[in-house]
Amino acid sequence: MVIGVLALQGDFIEHEKKLKECGAEVFEIRQRGDIERDFDGLVLPGGESTVIGKLLHELDLFEPLHKKIIGGMPVLATCAGMILLAERIENDENVYFGTIKMTVRRNAYGRQLGSFRTSSEMKGVGNIPMTFIRAPYISGTNGAEILAEVDGKAVAARQGNQIALAFHPELDECNMVYNYFLKSI
Ligand code: GLN
Questions:
Q1: pTM for the whole thing?
Q2: Is the minimum distance from the CB of 80 to ligand 1 under 6 angstroms?
Q3: pLDDT in tens, 55-75
């Protein structure tokens, strides 16, 4: 199984390590030519959604990746990646891929003190550690299925082949989310 990891900014290296541990072949998506090859799934990492969004357009990656996602390519998106997939961002006028019918709130836990670690049940996965870093949460859905909540806030969602997480599974020892993603492909 071959997974492309968007490697423009943010914590893509940690994702690559996890995917390899789970038996996937991994390559980095940095420029248009990188996605000419065949691949089975896409990872959109955490980082800064405004920066990643801008680079996607500048590097001519936005349209082809958008097409792939709409076409059903399995996607695992974390934190900023989740923001890229949301059809609406409550506190930002940008919309990026907009392929998951949900509204998210950026920096929803406050900017400075908004990083914390907890654990919770994720549907289809089990009880897993969850690390939040200036994270968004899902403030509403318009069709996306909610897979996990923390303190009454939705933090994981799925719509078809797209899985979006407000937290960072790449930073915890647990590989359950990656196995869930790879198995779903
Ligand atoms: N705060 C970032 C944003 O709004 C997301 C943070 C992260 O990916 N760790 O894009």
A1: 0.97
A2: yes
A3: 999 999 999 999 999 999 999
Query: One of 14, 16, 87, 170 is an active-site residue; which one?
Result: 170
The predicted structure's pLDDT at residue 151: 93
User: Is the distance from CB of 36 to CB of 52 less than 8 angstroms?
Assistant: no
Query: 168 alpha carbon to ligand 1 midpoint, in Å?
Result: 10
pLDDT for 113: 64
State yes or no: is 170 an active-site residue. yes
If we measure between CA atoms, which residue out of 176, 104, 109, 179 comes closest to residue 141? 104
Distance 136 CA to ligand 1 centre (A): 7
Verify whether residue 15 is a known catalytic residue.
no
Does the C-beta of 133 come closer than 6 Å to ligand 1?
yes
DSSP string, the chain: -EEEEE-SSSSHHHHHHHHHHTT-EEEEE-SGGGGSS--SEEEE--S-HHHHHHHHHHTT-HHHHHHHHHTT--EEEETHHHHHHEEEETT-S--SS--EEEEEETTTT-SSS--EEEEEEETTTEEEEEEESS--EEEEESSPEEEEEETTEEEEEEETTEEEESS-GGGSS--HHHHHHHHT-
